[in-house]
Amino acid sequence: MTSGGGLEPANYRLSKNTALLTYTDLLPYNTQQGVPITREFLLKLIEVLLEFVRQTNDRNCKVLDFHHPADMRRMLDLDIPDRPVTLQQLIDDCCLTLKYQVRTGHPRFFNQLSCGLDLVSMAGEWLTATANTNMFTYEIAPVFILMEHVVMEKMREIIGFQGGDSILAPGGSISNLYAFLAARHRMFPAYKQKGLSCIQGQLVMYTSDQCHYSVKSCAAVCGLGVDNCVEVPSDSRGRMIPSELERLILERKAMGHIPFFVNATAGTTVLGAFDPIEPIADICQKYKLWLHVDAAWGGGLLLSRKYRHPRLSGIERSDSVTWNPHKLMGALLQCSTVHFKEDGLLLSCNQMSAEYLFMQDKLYDVRYDTGDKVIQCGRHNDIFKLWLQWRAKGTDGFEKHMDRLMELTEYMVKRIKSMPDKFHLILEPELVNVSFWYVPTRLRSVPHGPEREQLLGQITPVLKGRMMTAGTLMIGYQPDDVRPNFFRNIISSAAVVEADIDFLLAELDRLGHDL
Ligand SMILES: *Cc1c(COP(=O)(O)O)cnc(C)c1O
After folding, report:
1. What is the superkingdom listed in this entry's lineage (predicted)?
2. pTM for this structure?
3. Ligand 1 center–CA 176 separation, angstroms
4. What Cα–Cα distance (Å) separates residue 358 from each residue in 140, 147, 182, 344, 374?
């Protein structure tokens, strides 16, 4: 197994003449010779990038070459100089940066909800970087703005919304915040102008005890206080219990509070559980509450006829949906979307009518200026890579991808169950999260119970440390409310095949049997 050897700077030499030049010899400074020099510089960089892509897809290469922060700091020259460095030095810097970067697209990287390196999406990101535009007006991003319209409309159609509105946000956490803000604006339109004092009573929001922490963060950021984000208990598989939701709504109403917002999670971050949307939607209808579905993680399954139901059944009854293409769909980071059933809310909620950007007397139909729908000013172009990827795959390709990830997960569960002495499956997954403990030799004869769980919880981080030091495998772990540390394996990369699952299980045993 090799580390990033191919990324040694010695392998990427610029020609003698170019190597010693500096940035002023590139475009736009050098109007005489700038074109060929810039071309040589960028082509060399692309060679470096392609080597990283090759290594990412090479099972004989390590996933990572781990060093502690203090050692890494010594090994790398990260200082900001007073004087320009040479073009060769810049290429060397790029080599070393990627040499020590974790290969998140490697078939043995199971650590994160965003795994994999989709090359078409990456090509899109390269183009996006080159176009280097801001997404606030049609004026400066005409093609990209139209792509946003087309792709967002398609996603709303797949959710089951007719009409509506959407926006791409910098991550699912901010998407959830947009949903919260729109919900409050819908119910208390005076808030935008008058602030907190126009709401006579304590606003309360609800989410399950398994939700992503960004939901609670809405309560902290928006003046409710975390105590007024009520955590609804979940069942043994991590799904919100609807009867508990109703009980807690009635409890707060009896105190004179104002429940207004319910978040249902479709694919929880740790266990991959789906809150039952239909009964939660019934409760929201009964008490006139906004229903948001946080499908940042599980949203991809909307594209699968086989797995969409019952997991996401009823999602079309919600008022808003967060859906991150940079997770299950494999779009490059970042790509997150939030969708609304009602059109016009985003604009009336967030519009500030900045006179220098959003003039109403422009040459074109100014409804295409999206910048006043958001609490940001500039927005990064996150659409092109998704549009290009979707063109490449077609909707059928995405469906195949989802079904394949679920099939591989079923394979992993089957394999784990076939070795009950070495592995303890925590629950039957609904999504590609597989939660389990590895059982070292000395604990195999101990009956499973709270005491053995404590011991397994202690060895889990040690085994993770061994994995990182070996550089052969990465799997995440965490404790939860009822369990000590356990592994959460994520299969969210198109690079993974059955043999990688077999490797993963064998490698855990190789690294951990003596713990
Ligand atoms: C990942 C995740 C988020 C946050 O998304 P970011 O893009 O990381 O901000 C929100 N909700 C759920 C359920 C998630 O899994």
Report:
1. Eukaryota
2. 0.97
3. 9
4. 12, 20, 21, 16, 13
Q: Is 113 in the pocket of ligand 1 (CB under 6 A)?
A: yes
Residues in the chain, total = 515
Give the model's pLDDT for residue 502. Answer: 98
Q: Is the distance from CB of 209 to CB of 203 less than 8 angstroms?
A: no
Could you tell me if 310 and 282 are in contact, meaning their C-beta atoms sit under 8 angstroms apart?
no
- Residue 193 burial by CB count (10 A; 0-12/13-18/19+): exposed, middle or buried? exposed
In a domain, 390, yes or no: no
Find out whether the beta carbon of 281 lies less than 6 Å from any atom of ligand 1: no
Classify residue 241 as exposed, middle or buried by CB count within 10 Å of its CB (0-12, 13-18, 19+). Answer: middle
Q: Give the number of other Cβ atoms within 10 Å of residue 316's Cβ.
A: 17
E runs forming strands in 446-503: 474-478, 486-490
Per-residue pLDDT tens over the stretch 136-187 = 999 999 999 999 999 999 999 999 999 999 999 999 999 999 999 999 999 9
Question: Is beta strand 336-340 parallel, antiparallel or unpaired with respect to 320-323?
Answer: antiparallel
Q: Is 461 inside any structural domain?
A: no
How many structural domains comprise the chain? 1
Smallest CA-to-CA distance from 341 within 389, 281, 300, 301 is with 281
C-alpha neighbours within 13 Å on the C-beta side of residue 94 = 21
Q: Which two tokens stand for residue 416?
A: 């784990």
Q: Average pLDDT in the 475-491 region?
A: 97
Range of the domain at 84: 5-103
- Ligand 1 pocket test: pick from 234, 297, 322, 433 the residue with the most ligand atoms within 8 Å of its Cβ: 297
Residue 511 included in any domain: no
Q: Is 109 in the pocket of ligand 1 (CB under 6 A)?
A: no
Phi, psi of 107 (to 5 degrees): -65, -10
User: What's the farthest any 2 CA atoms get from each other in the chain?
Assistant: 79
| Arithmetic mean of pLDDT over the chain | 97
Atom nearest to 114 CA in ligand 1: 1
Q: Rounded to the nearest whole angstrom, what is the distance from the C-alpha of residue 355 to the centroid of ligand 1?
A: 34
- Counting from 1 in the atom list of ligand 1, the atom nearest the Cα of 326 is 7
Residue 361, phi then psi, degrees to nearest 5 = -105, 35
Asked, for residue 446, whether it belongs to a domain, the answer is no
- Ligand 1 centroid to Cα of residue 172, in Å, is 4
Has residue 93 got a pLDDT over 60? yes
Cα 277 to its chain centre, rounded Å, is 22
